[in-house]
Design brief:
15 strands; four-stranded antiparallel sheet; alpha/beta; single chain; about 35% helix
């Protein structure tokens, strides 16, 4: 018997007939998070850059959120920057590399990366004439051997996902980082934890990574908020992406100085309501615990694999019981893949919400050997009934 977490998420009360299996796109929000948004606007609605008592309370609340997030990712609070999401975090690091990397330097990426961890590096390539090196073209699982094989004396940064948004296989961050640092301790390692952190524990200090990014809305938190982790030794050599209010210390006619430490990365008024709310989401996740989340999602995946449709035309890409995604396609009578959008529409007509296409990981077409898939993504609040409805629909898909 699984514990009922759905009771804490009002979405389920308002959408009783729907099965939500699009968690990799965004997660649903608990009532405690929603209440925190309302509380900010009804009781505070103040800018943390002001000095009145309400503003001071708001500032202090944001710092509590920072401390909570730092604990969640095993980092120091002065190593945590708030962003609008993982995309801004990656753009910040890629933009900063403009001042550090030179023509001919190499950036290592994988074929499983989301567009957010591809396009900023494409821009850097076009601007600084660095070389982009891709790995795991023929292997859907990212591993240290594949990465080690492409490292050279020119490698300056390795930027990889910790879990693909199409497969969600857990990447061994610690092992990969150790391999990279043993090759050259000066190579930067950036981890995109966007599809990882809601399922597995991100341990920044334990893994010795240099940078990490994540998005609140993937972690049962608000949209429009995220984090950038920068190892404290690197804070002074990484320049911010945004310049403006509160990220400076002094401004004169001929120069200005940065605010100290992580504050130089947070120019402008932040998404204060989201920061109020995100603390509630993080505390909710920590109360459940990563072990409970992993075990529950493992049970759901094992349940699906036990009941999987016995069909020759059903192609499953995610057979790992520890993978919280169900990624699949159907084949037509000529053994060609049926358009995933058609399958997604079929499931939606049966009140099951999934996603089709390559979900912004366009280069994954090479290791996956297909141009699109259907993705049913679980989270800890899903239950056996959701899986039963999915299996029933898949079993009934017309041949």
């Amino acid at each position: 018997m699984l514990k009922n977490y759905k009771k804490d998420f009002p979405w389920f009360k308002n959408n009783k007939n729907l099965v939500y299996l699009d968690n990799a796109a965004t997660t649903l929000k608990p009532q405690c998070m929603i209440d925190a948004v309302t509380k900010y606007y009804e009781e505070y609605s103040s800018n943390p850059h002001s000095d009145n008592k309400l503003a001071v309370n708001v500032y202090n609340q944001i710092q509590l959120t920072r401390k909570t997030l730092a604990k969640f990712i095993n980092a120091n609070s002065n190593e945590v920057m708030f962003t609008s999401g993982a995309t801004e975090g990656i753009n910040t690091i890629a933009n900063a590399m403009q001042d550090i990397l030179h023509e001919g330097d190499e950036v290592v990426l994988t074929y499983m990366e989301h567009a957010a961890n591809l396009l900023p590096w494409y821009k850097l390539r076009d601007r600084n004439h660095v070389k982009l090196v891709f790995t795991n073209k023929n292997n859907i699982v990212i591993n240290e051997e594949e990465i080690k094989n492409v490292l050279t004396s020119k490698t300056k940064i390795v930027a990889i996902t910790a879990a693909s948004n199409l497969l969600a296989d857990e990447v061994d961050i610690k092992k990969i980082t150790k391999t990279i640092k043993e090759f050259n301790q000066n190579i930067f390692v950036l981890i995109d934890s966007t599809q990882y952190i809601e399922h597995f524990a991100l341990k920044c200090h334990d893994t010795n990574i240099d940078f990490a990014v994540g998005s609140g809305h993937k972690m049962i938190g608000p949209t429009g908020i995220g984090f950038l982790y920068i190892k404290k030794e690197l804070l002074n050599i990484i320049n911010p992406l945004k310049y403006g209010g509160d990220m400076n210390q002094e401004i004169y006619e001929d120069h200005f100085t940065f605010a100290e430490g992580n504050h130089k990365f947070e120019g402008g008024t932040p998404n204060v309501a989201a920061l109020f709310a995100w603390k509630e989401s993080l505390e909710y996740l920590m109360k459940i615990g990563v072990d409970e989340i992993k075990e529950r999602e493992k049970k759901l995946k094992a349940y699906f694999l036990k009941k999987i449709p016995k069909r020759d035309d059903f192609l499953l890409y995610t057979k790992n019981v520890n993978t919280p995604l169900i990624t699949f396609n159907f084949l037509d009578k000529k053994q060609n893949i049926i358009p995933s959008s058609k399958v997604e529409k079929y499931l939606e007509e049966r009140n099951i919400l999934t996603r089709s296409s390559l979900s912004c990981a366009r280069l994954a077409r090479y290791p996956l050997k297909t141009n699109s898939v259907v993705r049913a993504s679980m989270l800890f609040y899903n239950d056996y009934k959701d899986i039963d409805k999915l299996v029933e629909a898949l079993s009934s898909f017309p041949k």
